[in-house]
Design brief:
The chain is built from 18 helices and 36 strands. The protein is an alpha/beta fold. α7 packs parallel to α8 and α13 packs parallel to α14. The structure holds 2-acetamido-2-deoxy-beta-D-glucopyranose (12 copies). This is Beta-galactosidase.
Length: about 700
């Protein structure tokens, strides 16, 4: 504790609030967390201290599960946890602050303290984290798509200042020296990987940290461990520099840390991201890192005196639309952020967990609390679905914003920061063709094309899709003149803003350039922001949707292929509110909701992930609703195949080779208990809204 600082606080403040602050500071006067450079160690309350930490992201699980995961982390022998703070999760729209539910940072910090865990906070503004836009709010792109992110661009700094003025005081109240558990705070992340080195920006962040967190708090940076990454922030020596690297076999740690020592000769050695697993991307193979290699590497680092954070110790889930993407080439991450971590996506303690726990016991000689049991996972059975609403038939209920202009406008311009936008244009009258070639100059990220006629504008014909991985954005289709094709519709899916790599700059989504049909540009566009979440969240019984008439009549292949919402209902008793996994293997690509909670994107046609994790906390006693937005091909040509099974086992692609499609398999799971059938679903109103 810096006594001069304490007196300064006492002298300058003479109000009641400062009195209580002074009392608190006084009673915590023994609490300090500092760096002893001479002895290459941290000092906690004046004593040498080595932290053994694990990463957990409070926003990647439900608050109902925070306690279980933290208890298991403490029981592994960890004495700290490391968290990121995602700016965009806390400020989803300009001026709209969220600190409740999964965003209740203060509660999470308090809970960690209850479990006797210190906290290392990585406060951003940029966090990477395989999180949408690396934690930056996409509304920055709406203000100015050319704004230079992660730089001293005054527009960016102004937004950062506003956010840090909200965030850092929350952290300041929970600093270790103030009686809380936060020992260190990181600003920015792996800035050395950007290839830019804007020191005015780095100094600005440092000053913000000092202004709100005081002169004593350990402020640190993290970069890759090789010299190239350390020549910007680490070399500047404002922040205490740490590095990140995974298991390296028997490579000498002295060699690994040599580049860091070259720029920061003294102080405790820290590995801020020791990779216990790795990230996945759609169409890739599920990454796995050998448990023995991880625990051996950990044992060596602990023996060498390194303070370690295991990344991830618990990975969790990218619910909703929160996954990020690496680029180039664009590689969006799947919904599961299991990360092959010691704790599985549902909190199960893996073999890797047991090994790590034993290594920590051996290294510290301290016996942690007993390991809590795995939580229950149930195979809840099968829920039958039926097609309830087509995209084009329900635009009235979906549209939240519309802009008419000569050329399409970006999603962010529409105020649509995640999810979907729809673009509509008319094919000019007298257009003389049956073979069409549609070409998009630039579109992000995944486009579904439909045509509709003048007489039946709401009945779309699915023309095909264009993926971000296609070499050119061209779609050829045939439409007979006699069917009167007049409207072209392009549904565009934002698959996650880039979170890592050069393409982070200007990463706007939607139709971004000209659209041509047989070489001639199409003008006169209607750009719509769509809100599927609102529709999916409505209770089934009160739903009045236009497509219900179609649903009663049965479905032909064209309708089944059109982007549609499929819904079902099932009943659970209070003993069945356990975790489970939804098997989407017979669907192809879309989004899943239960009781209005957006569980994330599914895409078994790409893999590696096939099932989606359903936390027990989203289930309810009594009636539950399920909604599936299928965009490419629903298995719903007949009632028996239009269903979702809830399983006791995940399938995130453990054994499948990269790129192996698993979509549209046949069902043969008749043994599962049927929770509800389409016939039992409530009758729907046929009328339009
Ligand atoms: C903190 O450091 C700044 C800059 O070095 C200095 O101006 C300020 O007086 C210090 N504050 C305290 C309370 O020591
Ligand atoms: C730490 O360093 C100081 C000064 O270099 C020395 O006097 C002290 O003995 C060291 N403490 C330990 C525990 O090594
Ligand atoms: C947008 O940002 C760029 C880069 O900072 C700047 O040059 C430009 O003037 C800004 N445009 C507007 C309209 O503010
Ligand atoms: C350890 O690394 C330093 C450079 O950081 C080097 O000077 C020293 O010789 C190395 N020591 C051993 C034992 O390898
Ligand atoms: C996606 O994952 C695969 C591993 O399955 C990897 O080979 C590939 O490099 C990843 N792609 C990108 C762009 O990160
Ligand atoms: C907990 O779950 C993991 C992974 O599912 C399994 O390997 C482990 O054996 C389970 N532990 C216990 C005590 O059942
Ligand atoms: C822990 O130490 C014991 C006793 O020395 C040893 O048998 C065991 O292999 C060690 N475990 C690990 C995971 O290092
Ligand atoms: C629901 O819970 C009861 C009591 O635990 C159990 O017998 C039953 O099998 C469960 N049903 C399902 C579908 O898991
Ligand atoms: C398509 O319809 C237009 C009138 O809208 C007509 O001029 C043209 O000949 C028709 N083309 C074909 C191939 O039928
Ligand atoms: C689409 O049609 C154009 C013109 O007919 C042709 O050149 C092109 O190869 C086709 N592209 C694809 C992807 O089929
Ligand atoms: C139901 O549809 C599936 C494809 O979705 C098909 O394989 C199956 O034969 C159909 N069953 C009946 C009875 O039509
Ligand atoms: C998911 O359903 C498919 C199709 O019925 C089935 O082949 C697959 O085994 C199921 N997945 C799991 C993990 O049971």
């Amino acid at each position: 504790m810096n006594l001069i600082y304490l007196y300064a606080v006492l002298l300058t403040c003479a109000c009641l609030a400062s009195f209580s602050l002074a009392v608190q500071l006084d009673s915590n006067s023994q609490r300090s967390f500092t760096i002893d450079y001479d002895n290459d160690t941290f000092l906690k309350d004046g004593q040498p201290f080595q932290y053994i930490s694990g990463s957990i992201h409070y926003f990647r699980l439900l608050p109902a599960d925070w306690d279980d995961r933290l208890a298991k982390m403490r029981a592994a022998g960890l004495n700290a946890v490391q968290i990121y703070v995602p700016w965009n999760f806390h400020v989803p729209r300009p001026g709209q602050h969220r600190f409740t539910g999964s965003a209740d940072l203060d509660l999470f910090l308090a809970l960690a303290q209850k479990h006797d865990l210190l906290v290392i906070v990585r406060a951003g503004p940029y966090i990477c984290a395989e999180w949408d836009f690396g934690g930056l709010p996409a509304w920055l792109l709406q203000r100015n798509a050319s704004m230079v992110m992660r730089s001293s661009d005054p527009q960016f700094l102004a937004a950062v200042d506003e956010w840090m003025a909200v965030l850092l005081p929350i952290i300041a109240r929970r600093l270790y020296s103030s009686g809380g558990n936060v020992i260190m705070v990181q600003l920015e992340n792996e800035y050395g990987s950007t290839g830019q080195c804007d020191l005015a920006y780095i100094r600005h962040l440092y000053q913000l940290g000092r202004r709100y967190l005081g002169n004593q708090t350990v402020l640190f940076s993290t970069d890759g461990q090789s010299a190239g990454f350390l020549k910007c922030v680490a070399k500047e020596r404002l922040f205490y520099a740490t590095v990140d690297f995974g298991p390296e076999g028997t490579k000498s740690l002295n060699d690994t840390f040599a580049p860091l020592r070259a720029v920061q000769p003294k102080g405790p050695l820290v590995n801020s991201e020791y990779y216990a697993g790795w990230l996945d991307n759609w169409s890739g193979q599920h990454a796995q890192v050998d448990a023995k290699a991880v625990s051996d590497g950990l044992a060596r680092m602990l023996a060498y005196g390194v303070s370690v954070n295991i990344y991830m110790f618990f990975g969790g889930t990218n619910f909703g639309y929160w996954n990020g993407a690496n680029s180039p080439p664009l590689a969006p991450q799947p919904t599961s952020y299991d990360y092959d971590a010691p704790l599985a996506e549902n909190g199960d303690t893996r073999y890797k967990y047991q090994l790590i726990r034993q290594v920590i016991i051996n290294a510290t000689g301290r016996q942690p609390p007993p390991v809590p049991p795995n939580s229950t996972v149930s195979s809840l059975g099968t829920v039958k679905l039926r097609r309830l609403a087509s995209l084009l038939g329900n635009l009235d209920s979906l549209i939240v914003n519309r802009v008419d202009s000569k050329l399409p406008v970006a999603m962010e311009t529409l105020g649509q920061y995640q999810g979907f936008a729809l673009y509509g244009a008319q094919i000019p009258k007298g257009y003389d063709a049956t073979e069409y070639s549609l070409r998009l100059a630039k579109a992000r990220d995944f486009v579904y094309a439909f045509a509709s006629s003048e007489s039946q504008p709401s009945l779309g014909q699915f023309l095909g899709s264009i993926s971000y991985s296609d070499s050119e954005a061209v779609l050829n289709f045939t439409a007979s003149n006699s069917s009167g094709v007049r409207n072209l519709w392009l549904l565009v899916e934002n698959c996650g803003h880039v979170n890592y790599g050069g393409d982070l700059q200007g990463n706007v989504k939607g139709i971004l350039g000209s659209v041509t049909l047989n070489g001639a540009p199409l003008y006169g566009w209607r750009s719509y922001a769509l809100d599927f979440d609102r529709l999916a969240a409505r209770p089934l019984r009160s739903r009045r949707l236009a497509a219900s008439a179609e649903a009663h009549k049965g479905q032909d292949a064209a309708q089944a292929a059109q982007a549609s919402l499929y819904m079902g209902e099932f009943t659970l008793d209070k003993n069945n509110l356990t975790d489970t996994y939804a098997n989407l293997s017979t669907f192809c690509k879309g989004q899943l909701w239960i009781n209005g909670f957006n569980l994330g994107r599914y895409w078994p046609c790409a893999g590696p992930q096939v099932t989606l994790y359903v936390p027990g906390a989203v289930l309810r006693e009594g009636s539950n609703s399920i909604a599936v937005l299928e965009l490419l091909q629903a298995p719903c040509l007949n009632d028996s195949s239009c269903r979702v099974d809830f399983l006791a086992m995940p399938d995130i692609g453990l054994s499948r080779p990269a790129g192996e499609s698993v979509g549209r398999l046949e069902y043969d799971r008749e043994s599962l208990q049927v929770l509800a059938t389409a016939e039992e679903l409530p009758q729907l109103d046929d009328g339009r809204m």
